[in-house]
Write a structure and sequence with these properties.
The structure is a single chain. By secondary structure, this protein is α+β, with helices and mostly antiparallel strands. The chain has two domains: 48 residues, no CATH class; 210 residues, Nucleotidyltransferase, domain 5 (2-Layer Sandwich). Helices cover 31% and strands 19% of the residues. It has nine helices and eleven strands. The chain has a six-stranded mixed β-sheet, sandwiched between helices. A hairpin with a 5-residue loop joins β5 and β6. The protein is globular and about 75 Å long. The protein starts with 16 loop residues before the first strand and ends in a 12-residue tail after the last helix. The C terminus is likely disordered.
């Protein structure tokens, strides 16, 4: 956590800094002005963080964001806290922008074993459209033991949505020794993951080498629903859609192949985010705004709020942090973009 809050020069990313002076903001808080000994730049400790330029007290912003993440709609929050909708959207955007930094920080850690459950849920965007044309399809990749969300992404229900989620999962695989992906009937998860990170198994025998999933990676599908109406050979109830590495430990029992935890998370998300409630007019008006809400929820769920079953913050259970963060701590984190080193 100390590395996560390490102050760096926004110009040259140097850590060789000295405190130049201090100043007081409108809320009464004292902040530091740093001098970079490498490039000579002067900057505030809030430079390149979500706190930069905020005039409202952080305690007030925290109350508003907590209300949003506990089920209030944006319009109801505006009426309750007497704040404009544009201000709330700006605060949500700043919180959502920290997701990239925290995800990179999480991917710097090594994990022994993970059971990832994959599922999807649906909401309307802007107006009622046919499901195949709506951008409200949301894919969820949840670690079963810690309830850590690796992916929470919305878009049209097409290849691009699932491929982006599997790209994230392939990065998790590189940091995990033993990983299992479990889904309820969604075969395309395993298909796309196989395309992205398959390996060629060379045995020295003649013929074309066999392609398998990486060592330690398992994919299982529980084919739900009745198949009595299907013609031809029936699919098995529990299935491995692709070849797995022969050295992969096969320790999955049939009763473990399910996505019950993601189903429970989907129900919780419908309670905590008004734009996912059914039969209401609080659904999102734009796909980008919905993704911003999801990114902000991802940060709060993984790093701030203790889960009601484990009683701990998911990032703490997973071993990424020693203690959970507050929203004020999150707003002090400097942004890190893809390709940069977060620590």
């Amino acid at each position: 956590m100390q590395q996560l809050h390490q102050v760096r020069c926004p110009m040259c990313n140097s850590e060789d800094l000295s405190c130049h002076t201090t100043y007081t903001v409108l809320s009464g808080e004292r902040r530091k002005l740093y001098h970079c000994n490498d490039c000579g730049d002067y900057f505030s400790e809030t430079k390149n963080t979500p706190l930069a330029g905020l005039r409202r007290a952080m305690s007030f912003i925290t109350m508003v964001l907590n209300a949003l993440n506990d089920g209030m709609s944006i319009n109801a929050t505006c009426r309750t806290f007497h704040v404009s909708k544009n201000s709330i959207k700006r605060w949500l955007k700043r919180l959502a922008d920290v997701k990239e930094t925290l995800l990179l920080y999480a991917l710097c850690h090594q994990f022994l074993q993970q059971f990832i459950e994959g599922d999807e849920l649906y909401t309307k965007v802007h107006h009622n459209k046919p499901p195949q044309e709506c951008e409200g399809w949301t894919i969820v990749l949840l670690d079963r033991a810690t309830r850590f969300l690796w992916e929470l992404r919305c878009d049209k229900r097409g290849r691009g949505l699932f491929e982006a989620a599997m790209q994230t999962l392939s990065q998790v695989i590189e940091q995990t020794g033993n990983l299992a992906l479990l889904t309820d009937g969604e075969r395309r998860y395993g298909n796309l993951l196989f395309e992205i990170c398959r390996e060629v198994l060379r045995t020295g025998k003649p013929g074309r080498p066999k392609e398998t999933l990486p060592q330690g990676v398992k994919v299982r599908v529980k084919n739900k629903g009745s198949q009595a109406h299907r013609k031809g050979r029936k699919r098995p109830k529990y299935q491995a859609p692709w070849n797995e590495h022969p050295d992969t430990e096969q320790n999955l029992e049939n009763h473990e192949i399910h996505a019950n935890h993601t189903e429970a998370f989907n129900s919780s998300l419908r309670r905590r985010m008004s734009c996912y409630r059914r039969k209401t007019n609080t659904y999102a008006k734009e796909q980008t705004a919905l993704q911003t809400r999801l990114d902000a929820y991802w940060v709060v769920h993984n790093f701030v709020r203790p889960h009601f079953t484990t009683k701990q913050v998911p990032a703490v259970v997973l071993g990424i942090l020693n203690v959970g963060l507050s929203l004020f701590d999150v707003f002090k984190i400097q942004y890190v973009r893809c390709g940069a080193n977060p620590i």
